[in-house]
Amino acid sequence: MNAFITSTGHYLPGEPIDNTQIESVLGKVYGKPSRLKNRILKSNGIKTRHYAIDTEHKTYISNSEMAASAGQNCIAASSVSQQQVSLLSCATSQGDFVLPGFGSMVQAEMGLSDIELNTSHGICSSSMMALKAAYTSLKANEHDTALVIASELASRLFKASRYEQVNSEQLDFNAEFLRWMLSDGAGAMLLQSEPKGLCFQIEWIKGFSHADAFPTCMTVGQPADKTIKLSWQDYATYAEAEAAGALLIRQDVRLLDNVVKMGVDGFLRLIEQGLVAAEEIDHVLCHYSSHYFKTRIFDMLEKAGVAIPENKWYTNLYTRGNTGCASIFIMLDEFRRTRTYSAGEHILCMVPESGRFNNVFMKLKVIEGE
Amino acid sequence: MDSYVLTPQAQNCLQELMRIWFDFERRLGKVPIVTRLQQGRLTLEDYRKLLCQLRQQVIEGSRWITRCASSFNKDFADVRSQVIQHALEEHRDYELLERDFVAAGGTLKQIQTAPKNPGSEALHGFMMHRASQENPIDLIGAMWIIEGLGNKMAKEWASAVDEHLGHNGKLSSFMHYHGENDEHHMEKLYALLDRVCAVPDAHRSITRTAKVVARLYALQLEEVDNDE
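The joint structure predicted for all components is written out below.
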């Protein structure tokens, strides 16, 4: 049995927010404008993004509601009805609740009956893990129609008030970094066992995780001082955890170069395994979090003699923002709706995750179904 | 960026060398003293132990590289010239390292009389053995790992040492210095790859030696914590 991506969908909350408007939504920490903002925005290249919170910091659409909207958008663009979906596979970095699983909340929100459910948890690569679960279910003949949804509502973590609870006079760079990187949105894909119209056959999905060899690079739940072996749940009260800075989302920027290296390592492995050749790729969709990393990935591939020409790379990072695990889905959705591609072409999708260095790759072939 | 390596044979070899390097970095990430260094838990005593073992490698490095140069016959006279140049540039690096050791609270006598650990013994033995073969082009694989590590020290380890052990960079001049000539050395290495990969079996022998050196280098660092 094969698996084909026959429809995609997305949901981006509210109007696009440009770089001058970010602080009016997220707020100014202690009332002062950020000194880092412009430097980080210049490096990541993002021009606009979307937030599910308003200027009063009120969440006007929840994570599961965004996921459901993306799912409905995907179904509406397909030839199936919601009732035909038999597997729902969902991903997020942080659901609206700690428990139950995000998938349960999305299922309820969409009103999907009698489905099999999967929730994958992680950071940027969790969507690819959710997609792989659906893909293997179709391959194993367990299901013939699966809906996969990835959704993120990171802005809740970036409210100025959160940073003001931390028991430290200085804002740490690693905690502020992601404030200018991440934003909100959801993407969805419909997988079917038969091709429909111009669609994408999943040739393979491969992941290489290196958590054993590297420390954590993006965290929520760890205190600012990494040498303190405490989880946010180890504090007597959640207020103490927050004061210790353990509830902030943090990126250890010094480790980021390893994301690029492990991304290139994965690509070289796939070449060695005969699963891909640089020449056969017509389109590359890579979830790089920042323009800076695109250049680094490019340089390294070039050095190894396996570069894919720049005109084959597509991204909507700069206009839709970095929506974590949802990014690759939102990217494929916009690619599908706005770009030209034809039967027989190959698409390479890459998600190098910085959380603790999990890289997932996928190769698609454009197929003309009935 | 221009492509460094031009011939398809050298490109294939470089791709495999990159994989070997990434694997080496992951292995280093699990070596206790490196983990402590990267996570800011290195003590001054740890650092002195690390320098003691790095010195073995640096001192012996100047021996195998000069031996390597003398093992190239007339067909590789151009390669020999490059290796001699490289040896000349680096053969007194250990003096910087000794200075750092003293700045970190050690004595010259301690570092100069410290014995090799089992990993250093194995690495040195292997290098001298390979360098004694005729036309030891496979040692480009060894240079790849050792240059790469010099680059990693300069880019990552030196700043971690400065940040956590202080002393305004006075402890880490060896690590910093290694980064200065690095780009230049890497360019030469890429040119050498182009030059020698046309030789049959060069790819296999270069990558094999790179793998062995990576493994033995990691062993040398693993053994830092096992000193008597």
